[in-house]
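EI: anyone free to look at a 209-residue chain?
SC: sure, send it
EI:
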Amino acid sequence: MALTPEQIKNIKEQLKSQTTNLPEDKKTQALAEIDSLSPQAIESLLKQQSLSSKSEKEQKTIFRMLVDKDIPSTQVDENKFAIAILDINPISKGHIMIIPKKPVHDSKAIPNQAFSLAKKIAKKISLKLSAKSTEMQTELKFNEVIINIIPCYNELLNINSPRSKSSTEQLEKIASLLRPKQKSNIEKIKIKKVKNSENQILKLPKRIP
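SC: here you go
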């Protein structure tokens, strides 16, 4: 199954995100090489990484790659049924995709736990990013259904609103505000005080002569 233009665009964006820590000259060269990749070259690259070795019906979508961590993403949270990642082409600051861990092809089949995760993050967006409201909308994309959480600041937005690009640094900064706080692994050790026996008088039984 040939990749769609949107899949090719998303894969290129994910590849570009991996050049962040390269020296400037190598980064410029890498970005130019990524931009010049043809659809055939991208498909060949995926095959080399064993991402397209399955039959056409079993071929991974971009969402399966994200869930399986075959390609990098800026993840915010997850539970047993879904992951929450920041969209690299957001509609607004903090736009998050809730992707079910198992493919869902009908919005009615989305696990309740995925919606619970979405509601939890929507509250955090309002609190941490000062969004006036959040729009929660399902979307059928690449033959899978996901949930979009779209923060609204100055106007109401929806899934068809214009998008913009975000850098890895920008996404990571937002993610740091929305991620759950990690619990400390340091356990409190209770130390029992042992009475000093040096000052104690040893009482011996009276000897009867």
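EI: The chain is about 35% helix and 15% strand.
SC: 👍
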